[in-house]
Amino acid sequence: MKLRFSHILLLGLGLGLAVLLVMLFTGQKTWFSTNTPIEIQPNLDLQFKAIPQSPNTFFADGKSLREPVEGSLARGTTTYPLGPGDIDAAETANVEPSDLPKNSEFVLARGQNRFNTFCSPCHYFDGVSENSAISKKGWAGIPNLTRSETAALSNARIFHIISAGQNLMPSYADKIDPIDRWAIIRYLRTLQKVEGVASNPIAAAAAKN
Amino acid sequence: MFSRKFDKGVKTGGAILSAVAAVLFLVGYFGFRNSFADVGYRPEQPVPFSHKLHAGELKIHCQYCHAGVEKSAHSPVPTTQTCMNCHTVIKAESPKLQLVRDSYESGKPIEWIRIHKVPDYVHFNHSRHIRAQIDCKSCHGPIEEMGVVSQFKPLSMGWCLDCHRAPEKNIVGARPISGVFTNAMHKIEDLKKGAYLFTPIPAQVGTSTPITNPQFGGYHSEVPAVKVAGIPHPKKAGIGPENCSACHY
């Protein structure tokens, strides 16, 4: 049989179709697209209602999220009343809640989790700050939290630093709940006890006690 | 009865028509599925933010920026303030960050383009899933490898139900990098190793019992004892609810 152009054309089309079919059936798409996905029934998928962080044509500022009424707070949230400079007021204002259990591994684990999440980018996992992402990117002078000056700070003061920030360190009051801040302080104390010893902070702190 | 030519014309015409119909049907039936239409959606964001750099290389935990995900249904896109925690000092002059600085000064949010979206009649709750120690990767894929984020999973109802019915097969266990609270202490020497941060702890799947008998898709799974009020207590992932009103309310 003589190979004709039409045969090649058909073969090519058939191959293309086969690839398309395999992709369709397996749902394995291998390309990316910057186009918004097609909605077959968009009026149900995209309803005119306020969804967190979505744009909204109803309000003048174009946001769905409303600012809280002045002087009010969203349920379950707190504000930190002191400014970065109110160091003396902080000593008496910040009291560790009495229902935070002592020697609790649960609280320490929570403290570690929050410390790793919010503090480690600058203070690293060991609190020494030297090898943190941000130190490596050129932010010099992030203090070592295990040094004796920092260890000498009161719990209330550290709570104050986390809540209000200090100089270039930003405030984390909006990201970390007060109870979690106390858990972080508990964990920071164990870090200071082990002074960056590379091991399990709980075991090492217990061994030192 | 018909001429030979006419007969042939009808046959080829019919063959072409049915082939076209078949292709149209296949594309229409499968091609609009989320797994095909939505996966791979990778819009260009107003600020060229790279998760590959921030999470993958710098190992900043997911929850540093997406804080609040363990408390609220909606996982927030970080505020401009979050960027400026570091970028007041780091790359403070970079032209790529101009929009961020503008937004910081004016208070007008950056208009990020939404990628992951379930229809508005579906109520997905992030906090429930995070508290069940399900890693972000389960649904978002390896974000830390994406320079530009794209949708990785179909986010279709069938896909949700696959996991609700057989969580042990589909869940990626919590990884330290995500910041999901698992009640486990990590050794600092482990945390310093990059690979450790990205290795999931085995998914903890608890036992679930149907709530009613006959059961209508409601399940009861072990609830952890409250140790400290205000700290979210991680629970084990169980069989997810299958009843319609769990997500469509």
List the helices and strands and how they pair.
The complex is a heterodimer of chains A (209) and B (249).
Chain A: H1 5-26, H2 42-45, H3 87-93, H4 105-123, H5 133-136, H6 148-151, H7 155-164, H8 178-194, H9 201-208
Helix pairs in contact in A: 3-7, 4-8, 7-8, 8-9
Chain B: H1 4-30, H2 34-37, H3 51-57, H4 62-65, H5 80-87, H6 98-106, H7 126-131, H8 137-140, H9 157-165, H10 167-170, H11 188-191, H12 194-198, E1 208-210, E2 219-221
Antiparallel strand pairs in B: 1-2
Helix pairs in contact in B: 5-6
How is this structure best described in words?
The complex is a heterodimer of chains A (209) and B (249). Chain A is an all-alpha fold and 209 residues long. Chain A is built from nine helices and no strands. In chain A, helix 7 crosses helix 8. Chain B contains twelve helices and two strands. Chain B has a two-stranded antiparallel ribbon with strand order 1-2. In chain B, a hairpin with an 8-residue loop joins strand 1 and strand 2 (219-221). The mean pLDDT of chain B is 88. Chains A and B meet through helix 1, helix 4 and helix 8 of A and helix 1, helix 2, helix 5 and helix 11 of B.
Short overview:
With 209 residues, chain A is an all-alpha fold. Helix content of chain A is 45%, strand content 0%. Chain A is elongated, with a radius of gyration of 28 Å.
Spatially, the strands of the biggest sheet of chain B line up as 1-2
Mean pLDDT of chain B: 88
Q: Specify Rg of chain B, calculated over alpha carbons.
A: 24 Å
Elements of chain B, N to C (H/E): HHHHHHHHHHHHEE
Shape of chain A: elongated
What is the helix fraction of residues of chain A, given as a range? 40-55%
Shape of chain B: extended
What is the tally of helical segments of chain B?
12
What is the number of beta strands of chain B? 2
Q: Ranges of chain A with pLDDT <50 over ≥5 residues?
A: none
What string gives the helices and strands of chain A in order? HHHHHHHHH
Helical proportion of chain B? 25-40%
Please work out how many helical segments of chain A DSSP would assign.
9
Secondary-structure content class of chain B: mainly alpha
Strand content of chain B: under 5%
How many DSSP E strands of chain A?
A: 0
Q: Indicate the multimeric state.
A: heterodimer
